[in-house]
Amino acid sequence: MGCLKALLCDGGQIRLADVATPVPSPGDVLIRVTMAGICNTDLEVTAGYRPFTGILGHEFVGMVESDPLGELTGKRVVGSINVYCGECPYCRRGETSHCLERTAIGINGRDGAFAEFLALPRPNVHVVPAGLGDIEAVLVEPLAAGMRVVEQVHIQPGHSVAVLGDGKLGLLSARVLSATGSNVVVVGKHGHKLSLARSMGLRTAAVDDFTGPADVVLDCTGSVSGLETAVRLVRSGGTIVLKTTVAGKYKIDLSPIVVREIRIVGSRCGPFAPTLALLERHNLDLAGVVEAVYPLDRGVEAFEHARRKGALKILLSI
Ligand SMILES: [Zn+2]
Ligand SMILES: [Zn+2]
């Protein structure tokens, strides 16, 4: 197929390189990527958050080029990022995202989606409903991370949920939780992002004005100071959900968590199928979250843009 382009991460450097078409392992589906999203995790990987050499990218939509069973060929698909063994104790319990042999596309031990082609095991591949646009499809991965909260925390009718942080993850998580029926408020400190949140139909508050207390607080701040703010805003007996992975170390007094009986829940990747179903039922009006779209061959520039302080979602069209 001649020479193909991809965005490689190599010793913390990102560069456009020529690559060969991936040879799918038995059972893998070969996908022609059409659009991909740059996520904070990609920026952290290039900043040395974890050692990774290979093609970056884990948020994508594409068309199936070949499927060993045939039936997915030609279908528009997205893919969940954690590739699992199916045999370890976690996999046998159905907790495949904690597989002991886990790899993750574009993050850990496996090439990712900032390329023309991507090979992915069949169970990771999900068909996109016809009514959804590519922008909604490419955002399924971060939206699913918001959906994960509903799996982990029983949010009762009437409960209040404060989403702390008005960046990409906060806005997308808030949108998912409000679509599932939660009473959500986005608590942030950037006027233009809070007004974007309001244009998406979300309630907002400035962090300096908001006193809560909320039944559930999601920390989507991406900062070590977020947890302390979350402790201040959650009600006694309430739940804090930590969504951000931060490279820094926490220094926090844990006694309020004991005395006020606050639950802290770590939360990572979420389920694709219910997220796609939610997107099909509700128009989440997500276009405002996308700040720019770059062609793949300007990928290095796209990364520079994504690193700008306060940048929203940057997409690559491939
Ligand atoms: Zn991501
Ligand atoms: Zn496993």
Q: What features would you describe in this structure?
A:
The protein is an alpha/beta fold. The chain has two domains: 168 residues, Alpha-Beta Complex (Quinone Oxidoreductase, Chain A, domain 1), CATH 3.90.180.10; 124 residues, 3-Layer(aba) Sandwich (Rossmann fold). The chain has ten helices and 18 strands. The strands form four sheets. Strands 3, 5, 6, 9, 10, 17 and 18 form a seven-stranded mixed sheet that branches. Strands 13-12-11-14-15-16 form a six-stranded parallel sheet, sandwiched between helices. Strands 2-1-4 form a three-stranded antiparallel sheet, covered by helices on one side. Helix 4 crosses helix 5 and helix 4 packs across helix 9. The chain is globular. Bound molecules: zinc ion (2 copies). One zinc ion (ZN) binds next to helix 2.
Provide the domain count. Answer: 2
Number of strands: 18
Small ligands present: zinc ion
Number of helices: 10
Q: Please tell me how large the radius of gyration is.
A: 19 Å
Distance between the termini: 16 Å
Helix content: 25-40%
